[in-house]
Amino acid sequence: MSALRLAICDPAEETRENLKHLVMGIDSVCLEADGSRYEFFFDVAKQSEPEAVLINIDSDIDAAIELIGKLRNEFPKAGIIAISSSTEGQTILRIMRAGAREFINAPIDAQELVAALERVGENTSAAGARPKSGRIIAVAGSSGGVGTTSIAVNLACSMAQIPGESIALIDLDLSLGDADVFLDSIPEYTLLDVAQNVSRLDLSLLRKSLTKHESGVFLLPRPVQLQDMETVNSSDFGRVLKLLKASFTHLIVDLSKSYNALDLTTLQAADDILLLTQLDLPCLRNVVRLLTSLETIDNLVDKIKIVVNRSGLDNNQISLKKAEEHIGREIFWQIPNNFSAVSEGRNNGIPLIDSSPNSSITQNIIALANRMTNNTVEGDDDEEIGEKKEKKRLFSFLSKG
Ligand SMILES: Nc1ncnc2c1ncn2[C@@H]1O[C@H](COP(=O)(O)OP(=O)(O)OP(=O)(O)O)[C@@H](O)[C@H]1O
Ligand SMILES: [Mg+2]
Question: I want to staple 355 with a disulfide (CB 3.0 to 4.6 A). Which of 60, 114, 195, 345 is the partner?
Fold first, then answer.
């Protein structure tokens, strides 16, 4: 995927540097050129042929407007985004009439910038690889030990293998979270550091605070000390999520089982919620209870996808059909039971894509990763494992000969 080619013009050094930092943290943008003089910027832009131009107009409004007009004529397809600390109607009108497509008020909100770049990117020739605000996938569990961390970590690693995807993994099990163990990493910073400094962080600094695993996943682990748990509040955490969304294509969040304020913040912000369960009565009963409780929050249950983990664990498991009847919903996905592969990977801190690349559970999680990123690959109907696939096999003789 090609990144959106961007040029920046801002005569004020401090705001120009801030702007550069901000865009450098956005994966799908490539900073081609930057200039500090309105009068010379036209020539700079000519060499780089940008698809989007960010112009801070505050240093000299008239010169900036003249530049916008020239750029508009020379590069009619380029999306010009004007930035100003002023919100005066007349100024904004002049800017828009000169040819700017977007206006952003300074100081810049990272999400607002990504959204503007996203809109601009949709209209350019190479649309497709455009800045997109990331999607949040919350991985929740219906009971302790149901496999949320195993699946969140391995899903994140599998998604990170897909070209064009950038993945951050957040461990929200603030007391006993072990996502770092699964990835054998010793992070320098934790969720506590990032949440406490969120107002001072720009996108590049934020990325640097996360620990990059060799799979490509960026990890934000739980705080080190148990007593630090209380210090992370949900409004700071909400801001962390927003910033991370501007910087990654997907955030995978391993929720705690306490459904506390941070878990609920994530569930509300999430685009997809994978609710993991096993096919036993206590788990299924909790699924029903969770669905009923979460029904009170707007639009939340519609985002929930039920995922059966450790499918085929023992013969006494409740059947898929009975489980669906009990829950009153379809099962979205089933992940097979493979204790030796999962526990080996876990104990050695190696994701399944490296420790057991060919096992059925790894292939299943890769298919889930493709499904969650809408990345359709051949034979990507693995979600039909279990009864549906069984039915296909039973009747497959009909199509033979
Ligand atoms: N698909 C699977 N097949 C076999 N074993 C699995 C599978 N998924 C998870 N496990 C095993 O289940 C146990 C619990 O897994 P994990 O720690 O991921 O669960 P969890 O829901 O995050 O637990 P906690 O509630 O403590 O956070 C581990 O021993 C793990 O190896
Ligand atoms: Mg866990």
Answer: 345
Quote the pTM value: 0.78
Q: Check whether 2 has a pLDDT greater than 50.
A: yes
* Mean pLDDT for all residues in the chain: 88
With H, G, I as helix, E, B as strand and everything else as coil, classify residue 323.
Answer: helix
pLDDT band at 131 (very low <50, low <70, confident <90, very high): low
> Which pLDDT value is given to residue 231?
87
C-alpha 349 – ligand 2 centre gap (Å): 14
- Return the ligand number nearest the Cα of 141: 1
Residue 395 is predicted with a pLDDT of 34
**Residue with the nearest Cα to atom 4 of ligand 1?**
339
Domain extents in the chain? 4-122, 135-396
The structure tokens 């934020």 sit at: 206
Classify domain 135-396 at the CATH topology level.
Answer: Rossmann fold (3.40.50)
CB 289 within 8 A of CB 299: no
- Asked if residue 206 has pLDDT above 60, the reply is yes
Closest ligand 1 atom to Cα of 335 = 1
C-alpha to C-alpha distance for 135 and 374, rounded to whole angstroms: 12
Name the β-bridge partners of 331: 306
What is the C-alpha separation between 374 and 50, in angstroms, rounded? 29
